[in-house]
Amino acid sequence: MSDFTGHLYAKPSLAEGLGRTLDIGATFDCYNDSPSTEEADFMATVSDWYAVGADLLSAINAYASRVGFKKSDVARARSRS
Length: 81
Known about the structure:
With 81 residues, the protein is mostly helical. The protein has one domain (14-80). It is 59% helix and 0% strand. It contains 3 helices and no strands. The longest helix is centred in the middle third of the chain and has 31 residues, at 37-67. The mean pLDDT is 77.
């Protein structure tokens, strides 16, 4: 499953995490900035819809496997719509 929530914050490494314990002035705080609030909102909305699509695809595949459809049947049904 993909991570669609990491656009608004940076993911620190282990070394950065260890360094934060000594960072009294919070100089390591770093966020992924956007040029404007509109672009940040747009990227968050797109990310949300990608997550919704991934969840729907997962649910469709789970239902299809439970009912007995093969993945090729699901793909063929999606291409017809």
